[in-house]
Amino acid sequence: MVQGYELYYWPSIQGRGEFVRLALEEAGVEYDDVARRDEGAMFRFLDGMKVATPPFAPPFLRAGRLLIAQTANILLFLGARHGLAPPSEAGRLWTHQLQLTITDILAEVHDTHHPISTNRFYEEQKAEARARSRDFLKERLPKFLGYFERVISANRKGKGHLVGAKLTYVDLSVFQLVEGLRYAFPRGAKRTERNCPAVVALHDHVERRPRIAAYLNSDRRISFNRDGIFRRYKELDL
Amino acid sequence: MVQGYELYYWPSIQGRGEFVRLALEEAGVEYDDVARRDEGAMFRFLDGMKVATPPFAPPFLRAGRLLIAQTANILLFLGARHGLAPPSEAGRLWTHQLQLTITDILAEVHDTHHPISTNRFYEEQKAEARARSRDFLKERLPKFLGYFERVISANRKGKGHLVGAKLTYVDLSVFQLVEGLRYAFPRGAKRTERNCPAVVALHDHVERRPRIAAYLNSDRRISFNRDGIFRRYKELDL
């Protein structure tokens, strides 16, 4: 069952790949972060007509004969294999539903610095980025984090997790979301966190888990920078 | 197994709910489109602290004791129950991966008319909407539809479907995507479709399926309008 995985993702950013890396690290399984030693390998899958299930974009994971793309889909797969999601259908769907809400906010975070075009530089859409960031920090971020706060609080089996009594992959993703928000929007994140103590406590719990703590201190953890989804531009932290 | 479903979605638009409606219609199962007779019922789930698995947003589906949100997640569930996805793990993940790529393009379509703020009127972000639409039609739409074209063409079991030899829920979603694009961007869609004959053929195939054809001719099918994801503004069809 447990086997060597191959992860394919941009080698110089955390980005969406980081949500997969965190799950692999917490699961304690071996994986090869392929593009960090051979970036070309990634493109062979993206361009290849020979691939039966071609990814639209990284990240993607090779697991034996499977080639799986889309962050939430990879986590659905890993969650079932490595006990990072409940085994029941209801629990599996609920965990995945929360992860897809993470997918949604990540797309919005990306658009705070690229509201007009992914293909053009930030500097070419700076005014629009400012307007979009203002809206994100004022309206969207409180709505998303407030939702996760409510879910944690309503979880009776709880202990501060989002789903059931145990850690799931979506707990790891909320940790990473908070990490990214703190990097990109130090002031905006702090303001919203004040109303989300359960989210902050979950972040802190994940950070202290032995495998995650070891990973964060290793050189496998890439630093945040201005090429990822979460980017720090002082003028956007309104 | 087959039971009465309750669908909860905005009653006056196709929106994301339409992807679920199409799957329910093709499956030939009974469902109650609840908010079309009682909009308040939807809000009781959204606001309710009493709900164990509260949705972040519509659509959501009630199936017995399950309450499932996120369009792609609902389709994952329905696909497995009603033969609208392959039964194998590999096939199930691949179908879902394609559906999540539909999720991605839908978020981008939404942002063509609301690139700055979901909470403000289109008229307040018209210039930015024009810039974003230009980029969408020139760069993003050809990339997404070209991807689906490649997937259909590379499917050896084929017959023009995206996955394997039979219709899946993602075929229905590509049909709806093409429908929406034609409504919102008649010129832009036509331009891109020229390079995507397999996507167009799949659209036409789905349109002619007896249950889908009957649905499209019924009053259960809401017309496109300027409140949904796909909106027609002449000035954005560049």
Report a brief summary of the structure.
The first copy, chain A, has 238 residues and is of the alpha+beta class. In chain A, 54% of the residues lie in helices and 6% in strands. In chain A, helix 4 runs antiparallel to helix 5.
* Oligomeric status: homodimer
Q: Main sheet of chain A?
A: 4 strands, mixed
Report the CATH C-level class of the largest domain in chain A. Answer: Mainly Alpha
Helix-strand pattern of chain A: EHEHEEHHHHHHH
**Uncertain spans of chain A, ≥5 residues at pLDDT below 50?**
none
- At CATH level 2, the architecture of the largest domain in chain A is Up-down Bundle
Q: Which fold does the CATH topology of the largest domain in chain A refer to?
A: Glutathione S-transferase Yfyf (Class Pi), Chain A, domain 2
Number of domains of chain A: 2
**Strand segment tally of chain A:** 4
Number of helices of chain A: 9
Please list the strands of the largest sheet of chain A in the order they lie side by side: 2-1-3-4
Beta-strand percent range of chain A: 5-15%
Radius of gyration of chain A: 18 Å
Q: Fraction of residues of chain A in helices? A: 40-55%
Class by alpha and beta content of chain A: alpha+beta
Distance between the termini of chain A: 48 Å
Q: Name the average pLDDT of chain A.
A: 95
For the largest interface in this structure, which chains are involved and how many residues does each contribute?
A-B, 45 and 45 residues
- Which outline of chain A best applies? globular
